[in-house]
Q: What sequence folds into this?
């Protein structure tokens, strides 16, 4: 009798006969021995079929198997230090489920467009599987951090009547007889939740109708947005660096095999420990100008600027105190210097750009009303948001983490399209 098993758990069954349901990842033959590279979604293992040790039907079935054919394979698990998993299976039986013909993704090189057209199959490759496993661990660690630190998960709406940041890069739809938009941020609603629950976070999809084709941008992506009552800017920065340190070290601890499979330099991730360096916007401008960048005070940073700054550090770096002129209306001005706001962007090392944006929020109702006027925002649309300052206003802060950029950085990927199972980019809505 055999025990049903998954590849991840074969270490618990050395010397035993087990049955694994899986697919043929690859196959090679050496005369009277066939080597089946098996995958089942939890890992990879080699199955060895020796002609002299199996019935003729088992040998013939093994010969008929093609890439991505599905089967149940039965055999004895043994330790094999030379294999990637550390174990091998001596095959004793095969039950074919389906023989695949002309599988389109072969071990040869394919172009990105071809692979994206076949994303539903590309996910089966070792690298793409590893990325999704790491993404899942990042998600788990994010929730673990907030759950361990007294935050309550709150789900803001996806359909909203207004922009969270006063921009026009929104996807419009009809909500019966009214105009509505797909959310670009749940932040304003999370501020309301923080006034009820103290410390909260959301975790959900957001949408940006920006016609951007950079390696850092997606149209649909996932955001984590904590808000904290009775929390100032400095306290928020401490939360952010502890949070990121926890997530990165959880991946290093729990996904080492996957990081190795995608060729990530793990030593760079092991160095990600709080505290993180901090520079002001003023200092960043001075540094960029000294490096020959043509940028003036009052201009926002682009990708080349962020990359140049990040190259100075082995950890993420905070850039703080940006000019109020190009930041969101809800950010609190520095009391000692009102032309800048109490905000920070966290820039990931190795050229991955901003992964967190956050600020202390305006808690003064009169100042917030002024900001509405300056940004030409409808008071009617935002009356509920004004109520948060009218009824028991308190100092509060929050931030937003882009999940896909974080996955790209931790995995060391060239493009965010590989960080999400089915990416939505400027020209891609299929599959």
A:
């Amino acid at each position: 009798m055999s025990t049903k098993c998954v590849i991840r758990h074969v270490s618990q069954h050395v010397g035993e006969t087990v049955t694994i349901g899986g697919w043929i990842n690859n196959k090679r033959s050496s005369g009277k021995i066939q080597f089946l590279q098996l995958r089942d979604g939890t890992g990879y293992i080699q199955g060895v079929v020796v002609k002299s040790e199996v019935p003729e039907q088992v040998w013939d079935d093994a010969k008929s198997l093609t890439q991505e054919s599905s089967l149940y394979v039965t055999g004895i698990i043994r330790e094999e230090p030379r294999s990637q998993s550390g174990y091998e299976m001596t095959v004793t039986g095969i039950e074919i489920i389906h023989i695949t013909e002309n599988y389109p993704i072969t071990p040869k090189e394919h172009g990105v467009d071809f692979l994206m057209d076949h994303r539903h199959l590309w996910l089966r490759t070792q690298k793409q599987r590893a990325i999704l496993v790491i993404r899942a661990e990042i998600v788990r660690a994010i929730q673990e951090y907030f759950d361990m630190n007294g935050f309550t998960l709150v789900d803001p709406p996806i359909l909203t009547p207004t922009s969270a940041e006063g921009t026009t890069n929104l996807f419009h739809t009809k909500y019966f007889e009214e105009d509505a938009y797909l959310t670009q941020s749940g932040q304003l609603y999370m501020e309301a939740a923080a006034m009820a629950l103290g410390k909260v976070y959301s975790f959900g999809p957001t949408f940006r109708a920006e016609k951007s084709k950079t390696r850092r941008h997606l149209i649909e992506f996932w955001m984590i947005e904590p808000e904290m009552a009775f929390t100032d800017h400095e306290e928020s920065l401490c939360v952010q660096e502890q949070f990121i340190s926890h997530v990165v070290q959880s991946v290093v601890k729990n996904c080492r095999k996957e990081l190795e499979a995608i060729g990530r330099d793990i030593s760079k991730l092991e160095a990600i420990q709080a505290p993180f360096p901090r520079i002001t916007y003023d200092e960043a401008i001075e540094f960029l100008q000294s490096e020959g960048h043509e940028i003036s005070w009052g201009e926002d940073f682009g990708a080349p600027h962020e990359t140049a700054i990040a190259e100075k550090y082995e950890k993420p770096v905070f850039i703080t105190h940006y000019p109020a002129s190009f930041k969101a209306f809800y950010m609190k001005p520095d009391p000692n210097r009102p032309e800048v706001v109490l905000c920070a962007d966290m820039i990931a090392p190795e050229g991955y750009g901003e992964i967190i944006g956050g600020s202390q929020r305006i808690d003064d109702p009169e100042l917030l009303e002024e900001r509405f006027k300056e940004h030409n925002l409808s008071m009617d649309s935002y009356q509920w948001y004004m109520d948060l300052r009218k009824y028991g206003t308190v100092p509060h802060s929050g931030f937003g983490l882009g999940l896909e950029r974080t996955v790209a950085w931790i995995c060391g990927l060239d493009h965010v399209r590989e960080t999400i199972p089915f990416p939505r980019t400027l020209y891609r809505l299929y599959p």
Notes: The CA atoms of residues 139 and 403 lie 8 Å apart. DSSP finds 13 helices and 19 strands in the chain. The longest strand covers residues 17-30. The chain has a mean pLDDT of 96.
